[in-house]
Amino acid sequence: WGKLQANLPVYAAWDDHDFMNNDQPKNGSDIHKEGRIGIRRVFKTSWNNPQYGFGDDGGGIFLRTRIGPADVIMTDQRYFRGIEGPLLGDAQMKWLEEQLLDCQGPFIIISSGCMWADSKGNGKDSWGLYDKEGREKIFQLIEKHKIPGVLLVSGDWHGARVYKIDRPSGYSFYEFEPASLGGRPGASRVEKIQDCIFAIAGQYAFGEFTF
Question: What is the DSSP string of 109-152?
Fold first, then answer.
């Protein structure tokens, strides 16, 4: 694993099973500050990211980088949840807004450990349950400034799926869930999942963007 990461660029963010346990933490009181710091320290020894949030003092593991023509913004929905604002925390939300306005390339990939769409259990453990206002703020910022080429990436739900999120403005977002290398079972029938245009589950899968 160390040899792989020493020879290939790898960018990683976490979600519930990486941070604590299934659908954890639900709020800021679920884990104390020292626990968050310790979990983050372990993550840094496993993943060779170019940066980790606000550093050791401020915490988090979010980052921004560039891959070819695409700006890549990876967000952190676990570290600040319920402590410094709803899902991202106030400071990370401000950081995300600044990054989106600063991007100049034709494509922007924004990753979220949990899902953007509400298809999983009406938003279970995702933006739809914990922070609809924050998600709306991000979407409206993109729409207001006509930021082009935005692709949403997510994880959490077992399987590989693509969602279309239609907006009242006429702007449509596409969310890609390029899981799962573990081949874990999960709901896969497209006709039973709201706004889902592609889905597989119960087999090994990965996703790839070609620009």
Answer: EEEESS-SSSTTTTTTTSHHHH-HHHHHHHHHHHHHTT---EEE
Which residue type occupies 45? T
Q: In this structure, are residues 201 and 158 in contact, taking their beta carbons and an 8 Å threshold? A: yes
User: Exposed, middle or buried by CB within 10 Å (0-12, 13-18, 19+), for 180?
Assistant: buried
pLDDT at 118 (0 to 100): 85
How far, in Å, are 40, 79, 167 from residue 34 at the CA level? Answer: 10, 12, 40
Average pLDDT over residues 61-79: 96
19: nearest Cα among 60, 54, 72:
60
CA dihedral 12, 79, 148, 177 (to 10 degrees): 50
In this prediction, residue 99 carries a pLDDT of 98
Tell me the pLDDT tens digit for each residue of 14-56.
Answer: 998 888 888 888 777 788 889 999 999 999 998 989 999 999 9
Helix (H) and strand (E) counts in the chain? 7, 7
Nearest alpha-carbon partner for 95 in 66, 69, 75: 75
Extract the tokens encoding 116: 């953007």
**Full strand arrangement of the beta sheet holding 196-200:** 63-67, 70-74, 107-112, 150-154, 172-178, 160-166, 196-200
Tokens for 64, please give them.
Answer: 């921004």
